[in-house]
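Help needed: design a sequence for this.
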């Protein structure tokens, strides 16, 4: 497991996203409001210790939620 948590959004990316979507998007609001919900620790037991390192467990959980929200 590669426990890194959610990386900060680069400043330029945040500026462009805010300009393109002044009211925000569902994905932007989910990440902004629920980032602490997707900490790595609660998901760590779901990831093995052998094999190639995976993505951050919190990141995988966040992407899953965002995919569900898009359907």
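Sure. Designed sequence:
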């Amino acid at each position: 497991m590669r426990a890194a948590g959610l990386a900060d959004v680069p400043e330029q990316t945040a500026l462009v996203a805010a300009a393109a979507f002044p009211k925000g998007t569902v994905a932007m609001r989910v990440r902004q409001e629920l980032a602490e919900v997707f900490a790595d620790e609660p998901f760590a037991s779901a990831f093995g210790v052998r094999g190639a390192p995976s993505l951050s467990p919190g990141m995988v959980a966040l992407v899953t939620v965002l995919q569900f929200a898009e359907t």
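The mean pLDDT is 81.
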